[in-house]
Task: structure prediction
Amino acid sequence: MNQKKRKYALILGATGSFGLASAKILSKKGFDLILVYRELKSSLEIIKPEINKLKEKSDVLEFNLNIIDEDNQMRVIEELKKSSKIRNNISFLLHSIADGNLNTMFASEDNPDRKLYLQDFQHTIDSMGTSLYKWTDLLLQNDLFSSNASVLGLTSEGTKMVLKDYAAVAAAKSVMESNVKYMAIELADKGIRTNLINAGITDSKALKVFPDYDSFIEKAKQRNPNKRLTTAEDVAKVIAFMASEESEWINGSIINVDGGEQLLSIY
Result:
């Protein structure tokens, strides 16, 4: 008997909290994996054992590079095109890149050197906003998507409310939210659905760079009706569902995965 061909999931930001948790559950559900991440040699000592565990269950192709660089983007695409197993067989794209600038928009008298510059906004929007569209287009133009594919990004409530030093990231997430509406409509006839997850506050690697981190975490716990933070595993379960064919009628949506946290005011 012929075995059913296994589908590939491409995860951008694969070693971040959401990316790695998603890779683990997708591997258990029978996906092969393309992992794109950016890690220094020192942090690879921690990450590599996790990736090796994934290789016990799945075919894993990995790239450690700066994925915002256009030359690196094409390097990844050319490698994917070489594989007959991957061509026309990527059924899930997860964009979980966290590479942005946190700072105030304007300088203050107390700290005149601390502010965002235009290039900070541009970098953040390129890496966390328009790159979901860019990667979707790259896979589409190079015949890498399967016939029924799912594209998923991660947004946050920072698009709707003010979080400290979050202006550039909020701008990037707002761009992503706007793009996803149009992508959902334009790609529907190609069998590609596009959605976003709005996760609750999660104690992730990306969050640790936030200002007043400890206070932020405690306030989030108190705000959540479950009196705990959202975990990467909470979010990964929903991500895995969005990668499955059972989610094929969800398109152009923003799905809150927060235990009801965002129903409550932060004040």
